[in-house]
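// run 5 | inverse folding | seed 20
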């Protein structure tokens, strides 16, 4: 990225050799990198500084990557997280996405692949103000009000704070209410690619949104088999 010199990265990797190589390569690309050898040290660094990107190994001493990501997400839904790990079990990958990860790399991986993932993650987690001006940022249907900029959803007087991806996904659904949102189009717009694991991650977020909207009987997120999703607003309610 041309502006990589402005990007600060927290890198948590207990393999000293790999961590040093990744840190040096990222610095050569212009990133400002803080390298930590375990999850506890990484969390202390996180609390002391502001980061644009967090790269976490899963299998770390003292505090593993899953635990660290969970603690970070309790207070920060914005900063993108990329997991790197030698484990490739689907359950681990899905758990990572469920905890709020933005991407997942399985070792061994090339520096080129890591850079591509970093660029894609930073691009799709850009500031909300960068969204097209032609698209509205507030929506009111039936008994809900959704503000995309503040990531606030109000359902019958109950307010919920949404994550970045939940807000992105709900905005797409609201903007296309009562119309099918193609699955691959949503994946490419929000996740950057329509890979299998990104698809499973999107399913997790769809389920979360469906649960939040369940308080309004006039709204429903429908699965359209073989096509995608549709936010159904009952006639006369939207």
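// decoded
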């Amino acid at each position: 990225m041309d502006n990589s010199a402005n990007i600060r990265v927290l890198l948590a990797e207990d393999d000293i050799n790999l961590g040093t190589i990744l840190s040096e390569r990222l610095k050569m690309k212009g990133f400002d990198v803080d390298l930590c050898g375990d999850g506890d040290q990484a969390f202390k660094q996180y609390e002391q500084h502001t980061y644009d990107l967090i790269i976490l190994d899963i299998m770390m001493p003292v505090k593993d990557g899953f635990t660290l990501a969970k603690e970070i997400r309790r207070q920060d839904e914005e900063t993108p997280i990329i997991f790197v790990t030698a484990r490739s079990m689907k359950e681990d990958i899905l758990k990572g996405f469920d905890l709020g990860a933005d991407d997942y790399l399985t070792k061994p991986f090339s520096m080129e692949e890591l850079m591509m993932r970093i660029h894609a993650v930073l691009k799709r987690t850009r500031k909300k103000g960068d969204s097209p001006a032609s698209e509205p940022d507030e929506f009111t249907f039936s008994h809900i009000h959704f503000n995309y900029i503040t990531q606030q959803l109000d359902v019958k007087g109950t307010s919920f704070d949404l994550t970045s991806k939940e807000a992105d996904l709900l905005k797409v659904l609201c903007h296309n209410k009562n119309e099918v949102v193609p699955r691959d189009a949503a994946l490419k717009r929000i996740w950057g690619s329509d890979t299998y694991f990104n698809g499973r991650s999107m399913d997790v977020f769809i389920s979360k949104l469906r649960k939040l909207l369940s308080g309004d009987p006039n709204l429903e997120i429908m699965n359209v088999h073989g096509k995608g999703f549709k936010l159904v607003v009952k006639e006369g309610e939207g």
